[in-house]
Specification:
Elements (H helix, E strand, L loop, with lengths): L5 H31 L2 E2 L2 H10 L13 E2 L4
Antiparallel strand pairs: 1-2
């Protein structure tokens, strides 16, 4: 039988959870660093891009068109 002990399964599940949590935290840190640059894409530009998907006139990904003012 290929059955693994419950402790092995629990250990693997915990390892996967911790890996996923670390990846999420890293993605959040990267997003915050990107946001700290103060450059954002407007809703209108993002919507136009998404609306163009799967059409003959698909747009390039938008570039930041909003600059946050310095605080």
């Amino acid at each position: 039988s290929d059955e693994r002990p419950a402790s092995y399964i629990a250990t693997k599940a915990i390892e996967e959870y911790l890996d996923a949590r670390d990846a999420k935290n890293q993605a959040i840190a990267q997003a915050l660093a990107e946001a700290d640059k103060g450059e954002f894409i407007s809703e209108a530009a993002m919507s136009a891009w998404i609306d163009s998907w799967d059409t003959n006139l698909e747009l390039e990904a938008p570039t930041p068109d909003i600059k946050a003012s310095a605080a």
